Structures are given as structure tokens and as C-alpha cells.
Amino acid sequence: MYGADRYEQSLLSEKGYNIMVHGRDYQPNHPTEQFDTIISIYLFNWLNNIEQNNVLLSVSRLLKHGGRAYFAVKHHFGFKNICLNEQHQIEQTISNVTLPFAKAFNSYIFDIYEFQHFNIANRHRSQCPYCSPQQQVILENEYSYAILSNSPISKGHGLVIPKRHVASYFDLTVDEQIACQLTLNRLKKIIDEEYAPEGYSVNINMNALAVLRVDHVGIELVARYKADVR
Ligand SMILES: [Zn+2]
Q: I want to staple 101 with a disulfide (CB 3.0 to 4.6 A). Which of 5, 113, 179, 220 is the partner?
């Protein structure tokens, strides 16, 4: 549970749920195991867009395949509000948040979004293998996701795909390009931890002319090793 406090923890524990709370102050160690359900309570209202996308990447990584995450966000603020964080005695910006996921609940004050990995949420939606990926998505944020290659050319070969069906990287909005970049950075970290390669190649395949022959742009991250170099 992200952004919860001990009150929510004890409430759910009393109901018999096996629950772990993650918070910067009282549970600073980031969890490493994967979970069936992840709940984030009002956290996104305190974060800028890049931070929100990084939290989405963390949640998508921590969520078991087939699991569900719930994001509660408030939406009754003015355009921008400065609020006093009483715990830390600092002023922070708090803002409205809209997420591109289905709403499980909505009210005047807050919404709860339900998140499932892109390959599950978009199953059978399209003939395009990137709009409806068969492979398990290992990372995801607002506009992009990552999968591991079906036919890896080295140990550590992944793909970052924008969610929107676009043939060229240059037709993506800047927000979409940033989301792809954040996913690429996180994918590199995962491959570093798993294989510790000595280098990387990054290829952007577009307009169906490149190796992948799919009319949907993809960014390939390929781990490189000294032994590969001829
Ligand atoms: Zn597509």
C-alpha cells in the first residue's frame, strides 16, 4: 500500500488481509516482492507528472501478473493549490489528477482508478501486436510500457513501446516521449541488476522499415558484452 498510514494498515489487518505498507517515513525500504493488490491513497495529488510516471513504473513492476492496483486521487482542488504538509512543516503543491485507467469508483471528492497491466487490459483490442501485446508487460506508465523480446539477441533485450499506435517516434507528443524515456531508464536498471552488461545499444524502430516490421514505433534496448564485439 503506497501513501497509506498505520490507520489503514490496522483497519485492513483487522479484516484479515495480509498487508504491507510502504511509506517514505515509516517504511522507507522499497519492497522487492510482488503483490496481488496494490493500493495508493492520494499519493498522486502530491507528485508532479514525472514523479507520477515513476510511481506507475514501480507499481507495474511490483504487481503480480493478473493483479490489480487501485489509485485513489482527489479532484476537487482548484488548478494549483499550495498546502502545508503538517508532518514535515513544508509547503507542497497539490493538484488534481486524471489517470488513463478505468474508474472503479467516483464521487464528488475523489476517484478510484483500477489498473491492470496493459497486455491484460487491452487483450484482443487490436490486431497490432503492440496495441494488444501477447507478452507479459513488465513495466508501464501513463503512455508507455516495456516487454522483454521474444527473440533476444543478447542476455537483456527489451522493448519500450508507446501505448498509442504511431508509426514514427517523431509523431509522439513530448509527454509520450518523456514517458518512453522514463520506462527506458527503468528497464535499463532491471537489465543491469539481472545481467550487469558492459554496454547497451538503443534502436528506435519506426515506419515499418526497421527490423521489427510493425507499423508501431518501438524502442529496443539491447545489452552488450565485450565478447559480442568482433
Ligand atoms: Zn499499434
A: 113
95-142, pLDDT tens digit by residue?
788 899 999 998 888 899 999 999 999 988 899 999 999 999 999 999
What are the tens digits of pLDDT across the range 15-45? 888 887 776 666 667 778 899 999 888 788 8
For 14: left if phi > 0, alpha if psi spans -120 to 50, otherwise beta; the answer is alpha
The three-state secondary structure class of 197 is coil
Same domain, 87 and 188: no
* Three-class DSSP category at 33: coil
pTM for this one? 0.87
142 in Cβ contact with 52 (< 8 Å): yes
Asked if residue 65 and residue 147 are part of one domain, the reply reads no
Q: How far is the CA of 205 from the centre of ligand 1 (A)?
A: 13
